[in-house]
Design a protein that fits this description.
alpha/beta; Spore Coat Polysaccharide Biosynthesis Protein SpsA, Chain A
């Protein structure tokens, strides 16, 4: 079955980015010239996704407004003759069909996914965490979708991390390597404190199937007293193949100040108009 829906859990408060996120959603923080959420949505559109579901909360009106039509702004841009900017604004509001769902309580990623089960029903769907911005030639979620087309089973995006970083991630245990990037998984643990099963970390891109959603109804709350998606995938793997794919690209955790800074430098370096500005700015610093 074709994957036509991408789900974005965006209800969180963004406490790691305070005070910037006191008044605006963390997903609306700007990377170069676009908010983080727009990068994540464009990734899905470039992969052929037809429908977006945002799982939001009370503080996310700015995000909803960003993808809505602003008639007054469009009229002013037209009157001012700023047609290129006007076309950009229209493109944002016409990108894709969008559904908004409220997550009433912040009880984990698994709880967020449960909020959309009556919408996705028996279809497979993508999940994209917009904190994780991935710079790549082929959209990261498309890489996973291509894997799904081969096996029609849940797919998790993976990335190697340093051993001393494994306690910050969900970590997988590999059962069998299918290719050098694609593997069948045996087990996974959310933020292991001791004895991680590998150094392969789960990153914010998933292809989920109805089996995983059903598993969320059967598992207990996990780390932090929250319903963990990793635990549902682990449960699913006991009776149903679950796969991992080490995506091609560079990932930035833009939910942190350090990650956002690193992403800004890398995206500027890949932009023909900005890379010389970046080079001059860096060369003028006396920090090394």
């Amino acid at each position: 079955m074709k994957i036509r829906t991408a789900v974005y859990p965006v209800a969180g408060f963004g406490t790691r980015m305070l005070p910037a996120t006191k008044a605006i959603p963390k997903e609306m923080i700007t990377l170069i010239d676009k908010p983080l959420i727009q990068y994540a949505v464009e990734e899905a559109i470039d992969a052929g996704i037809e429908r977006i579901i945002f799982i939001t909360g009370r503080t996310k009106k700015a995000l909803e407004d960003h993808f809505d039509v602003n008639v007054e702004l469009n009229n002013q841009l037209e009157l001012s003759g700023k047609i290129d900017i006007l076309n950009d604004m229209k493109r944002i509001s016409e990108m894709v069909d969008i559904i908004y769902v409220r997550q009433k309580y912040m009880l984990g990623l698994g709880n967020a996914i449960m909020c959309v089960k009556d919408i996705v029903k028996d279809e497979p769907f993508a999940v994209i965490l917009p904190d994780d911005i991935i710079l790549s030639k082929t959209p990261a979620i498309k890489q996973l979708m291509e894997c799904y087309d081969k096996v029609e089973r849940p797919i998790i995006s993976l990335m190697p991390v340093a051993k001393n970083e494994t306690s910050k991630y969900g970590i997988v245990e590999i059962k069998e390597m299918i290719t050098d990037k694609f593997s069948r998984l045996k087990d996974m643990v959310e933020k292991p404190v001791n004895n991680p099963p590998s150094n392969m970390a789960i990153i914010g891109r998933y292809i989920l199937t109805p089996e995983v959603v059903s598993a969320l109804d059967k598992i207990e709350k996990g780390v932090g007293g929250e319903l963990q998606l990793t635990d549902a995938l682990r449960y699913t793997a006991t009776y149903h193949d679950v796969y991992g794919y080490e995506f091609e690209g560079k990932r930035f955790d833009c939910g942190t100040k350090e990650g956002l800074l690193e992403a800004t430098i890398n995206f500027a370096a890949s932009n023909e108009k900005l890379k010389n500005v970046l080079k001059e700015a860096v060369s003028s610093l006396n920090i090394l």
